[in-house]
Every structure is written in structure tokens, then in C-alpha cells.
Amino acid sequence: MKIRDVMRTPVVTVTTGTTLRETAQRMVQHTVGCVVVVAGETIRGIVTDRDLAVRGLAAGLGADAPVTEVMSAPVVTIRAGDDLDEAYRAMCRSGVRRLPVLDGPRIAGAVTLDDLLMDVSRRVGELLVPLSWCVLGDQPGPPPSPPSRPPGTDRAAER
């Protein structure tokens, strides 16, 4: 499976001059937990809701501080055509939970730890199907039909 098969689109972005307040408002507006900070077409950083709380609010920054004060940089990215396993490796190596996805030089989407957990869940489900056949003794499908009765018989006579 490829990254493009599980990535989320579109990616919410802000520019390097965006304030912490505006960044938080964009997150609320788009119901996302992170935004990518860009300058033109170039990725400059990434900001999570936790960054806003810990690096911003808890550190005493005001709502009008620039987002560059709390963003993480450089950003670990992944390519849309990469195998999904590469996202697992990138997250393990870097300790991040969100990866912007590039298609050539442009941002095409994002893949998150939640997306990977959904993939794991799907894979486990696929692994369990043959096991359920062994336990149940039948392959999945509709239940077998009851035996047919000769014409003229009814169930009431059987009782």
C-alpha cells in the first residue's frame, strides 16, 4: 500500500508571519491538530496544538507572537509514492506523529500516527479471517440453506 492511499488531504498551512492566535483559529476552523508552516511553496516548519500550548502559552508567549516561535523545524516529510512501511520507519526514526506528504515539490497531504493505527487495525483484521475459518470450521459467507421438505409437509405436523 502506498502513502497516497491513506494520506489526508488537503493539508492546512499557515505562513511564517501568521500569529499563534491565527494558527489556533485555523486549527479550530479545519478541525486539525497540526498545520504546516510555509514560505511560498517551501515547508519551513510544522506546528501542533501541543506546540501552541507548551511552547507558546506555557512559555509565556502572547497570542500575537509569530508561529515561527513555536514551530518544529526541519520537518520530516515523506513522498506520496512511498510504501506505507516507510511512514512507519520515518516516525520511528524521528519520533514524530505527523508527516507532510510531498508529491514532487508540492505538499499533497499528511499522514498521521492515527492513519497508521487504522492501517494496523485493517491488517490485523485481514490476518484474523483465516483464523476464524479454522475456529468456526466454515469459510465466511451466507449460512447454509435448511434441507428442503417434500411437498405437502409442514412444520406444524412435526411438533
Structural class: alpha/beta
- The backbone outline, from C-alpha atoms, is elongated
Estimated share of beta-strand residues: 15-25%
Give the SSE order as H and E letters.
EHEEHEHEEHH
Strand order of the largest sheet: 1-2-3
- What would you report as the Rg, rounded to the nearest angstrom? 26 Å
Distance from first to last alpha carbon: 56 Å
The mean pLDDT is 87
Low-confidence stretches: none
Helical percent range? 25-40%
Largest sheet: 3 strands, mixed
Give the number of DSSP strands: 6
Structure description:
With 159 residues, the chain is of the alpha/beta class. The protein has 5 helices and 6 strands; from the N terminus they run βαββαβαββαα. The chain has helices at residues 20-30, 49-57, 84-94, 113-136, 155-158; strands at 13-15, 34-39, 42-48, 78-79, 98-103, 106-112. A 3-stranded mixed beta sheet has the order 1-2-3. The protein has a 3-stranded mixed beta sheet with strand order 4-5-6. The mean pLDDT is 87.
